[in-house]
Amino acid sequence: MRALLVVLVAVANFGAQAQWLTIKTDNFNVHYPRSLQHWAYSAANELEIVREKVLAQQGRALDERADVVIYDPHNAANGFALPSTDKPMMALLATPPQSDSFIANNTSWQQLLILHEYIHLVHLSQSSRSLWRQQLRDWHDITDLLDAVLPRWVSEGYATLLESRLTGRGRLYDNYSESVVRYYAQQGALPTYGALNNGDKSYLSNSMAYLVGVRFLAWLEDNYGAQTLDAVWTRVQALESRNFETAFRGAFGKSANQLYRRFVVEYSYQAMQQELALPPTASQLWQTFSFDARDIVFSPDRRRFLVVEQDHNRRVTLGIYEAKDNDEAAEQFNMRNQAILAADPEDVPDIKPEVFPKKRLAQFNSHNFGGIYHPQWLNDKHIYFVAKTPTSEHTFVNDLFLWQSDTGVLKQLTRGTGIRRFSIIDANTIIAEVSRQGYSQLMKIALDSGELTPITTAKLGDVYDFPVLVESNSTLAYLRVSPNKRWQLVVEDLTGNLIDIVYLPKQHQYLTALHWSGDEHKLYFISGLEGHMKVMRYDLSSRKLETLPKNAKPLKQVLVHSQKVFVSYAAPDGVKLAQIVSPRWQVVRVSEPVDNAERKAQHKHQLPPAKIDQTAHEAVAYSASEQSYSIALSGALHSAAFDSVGVALKGQDVLRQLSWQLGIEKSINNGALLGGFAQLEYLQHNWKTTLDAGYQDLAPDKQSNAILGKGNEARFKQFALTSSYRFGDILNNVTPEFGVIRIQQGDTVWNGSRYGANGNLVWDAQQHGTALHVSASQWLGELNGFDYQVNLFAKAWHIPFYASVDSRYSNSLPISLGGGQLTSTSVSNGLNAISEPMLPYLFATGSRYLGYEFATSWQQGRPKLFYKQHQVDSSVIGQSYGIKMQSSLSKTVLGRAANFAPAGLTDLYFSAGIGRVEGHNMANENRVWLGVWYEL
């Protein structure tokens, strides 16, 4: 016990080092780590400005203070919100977006992000005017969320609408976003109403909830009035119960589906008219990709090219392709057609495709969920690229890697740097945009020493992108943007420190994809004008700016290869790469330099210009005492034992530093179970301390199936206090732990302690991978035993395989087998009780247990086919096989938002299955189970 107290003191002392801080404004609690202090100061000011303007525009505000969590978990731009009538919460991710993003058109990343997420909360967190429904929402977080949720296209589309209306920027007025939607309309590929929420697996369809949703809602406002659309939100929370579809039909007189079809027709007609008005641009298809393709780079010898590809399952690969035509594929096509005609001379064979896919020479799969970004050729065999690496802070950060394509060797070159796009000076030196803690900066990085030399000044709100060098390394071009400005093209002479800003015409918006033509010393890039994309170039020697005509296609990238101009563009069936035939360049005259971005619409409640106001706020140490509370309901159906229900009161703070639950569980009808439990968990950085106390009164003979032993009643009590510390990162780690335990069964009491460790090793290459989890502990004192579990996962060609071993022994404490997953079971006798939902509770008891399980599925996260065998005291008790599934419902439904959700939405688990049990001492029969429960 003394050792445990020493550990707890260490936890308290470490808390000061890993401290989160809180700023309390009039309406928000802003939580942030100390490293993001300046970002948080500015956000605290912006939050109150946004709230004031939204209140004026909407006539609505939140009934409760909102929790705002500022952090940077993936070194990427994003954010999310969780609506709630009593605990609304939003998360702001500090890393700014890059120039080719749909969200690059903003007054500032911070202002757009705060506005978008706050609109979610105001839109979805309104209280119901039905008193009893609202009281239920107040006490039950799941009901609160279900009543708040609207179709995804509605919630995201409306937040995107107001992000645009109230700033004059945003995705409604973004040229790249408009170009994508127009082109899809011209191809007849706008999503159906049914696919508007989550897409139809075509390329970019998952983004259409934002891009098309906002345009449909804007069309509704333009044709029916903003008040009519606003009435839908009022009707949804009326005294009379209505879902979105009913509320919409009542306000508009027609269903959303009907009006959406009309919108699609009108928008598509206008898109076709705009396409006809464009001058023709002759192009020849050069390569097709089945889904996403980005970061295309030709090799130094111009005979190959790199490309990062991603399929609709988000599997990412880096491929090397031949740049020449695929004559082998063409020959095979012709031979196949000849064979068809030889067998059936009257048949009509396939016509020749516009282009045969280029031959793939090598492929590298993303490793350990890190993705692949911005590859560059160092030479013909060595390739640098960026991937995300895990940290000990439960986060990922961008780092540089080297892939040797001929041997497959992979080497990490930086650690914790935050690199995004970069250019190579030599094998040891790069120039990169580094983004950490919300700051963006151009840096020269020495890869051997890790030394970072600033090229630009880091200033909150300023963002840099696309640093590209000419072949001689004498000139650097890059993009930059500041709050309320538009993206600027900067050309810097590194030999004389001369900086030239290349201004574009005033009407242009969207600027990305810089590319030097080595043989011409011309800088190519993509710009946007009037909802279309344009290829432009800047001549370094003559300082002449030229452009090609507007293109109907949503261009992603421009490349120059052997005097030929190539563009990649988004299409519904995947990204395509085409060569522009006989490009007609026109000189562009810029009459006046323009820095400020144009606001497309003037709204009477428009936000003031974005301001990075870092005025210091009074901040206090984050307190876990501000808790959310919820009723937590659980239940289980077990054909082998009994059905049960449970109710608990559950609470936690928004950062989940202090979580707890107190509840009871009872069997239905037969009186086989009465249990109670209390759990408390304190988490600070990588320290975790848990307190479990449980009681369970079981009547084994009242279960649906008999047990092997004798006895009509079994009472269990357990008290356990455990502390652990995790070393390592989120993927590969080891966690030593120590605890004291008191167990009582009937009138017999065992006092003891437990020490051990658990660890994880993960290697994942998407198509193949392995993972190992090992847990082992020694039981001391009157417990006098041990336990260990080994779980092995492997996948081959995406097919998963699972194997596990569970072994436990005690020469004094009885070890029991059987029963489903109940919170009262795991808390009251989880140390010595092995859960098996296909057997009744206390089915078999002994001093030693050994169990094996093997399982597989057709895909990770899907139901498993399993086989399991149990041994007690060296005798095979039985075996079971069937199909089952178990998952964390909280993480499956909420994703990373589950880390900050209200108490009733976290720690929720689900298990279900059907199978057959067989054994010498039992009836061979089919059994089923279903369980939903909470467990910290």
From TrEMBL:
Signal peptide span: 1-18
UniProt-listed Gene3D superfamilies: TolB, C-terminal domain (2.120.10.30)
Alphabetic keyword roster: Signal
UniProt keyword Signal present: yes
UniProt-recorded name of the protein: Peptidase MA-like domain-containing protein
Phylogenetic lineage: Bacteria, Pseudomonadati, Pseudomonadota, Gammaproteobacteria, Alteromonadales
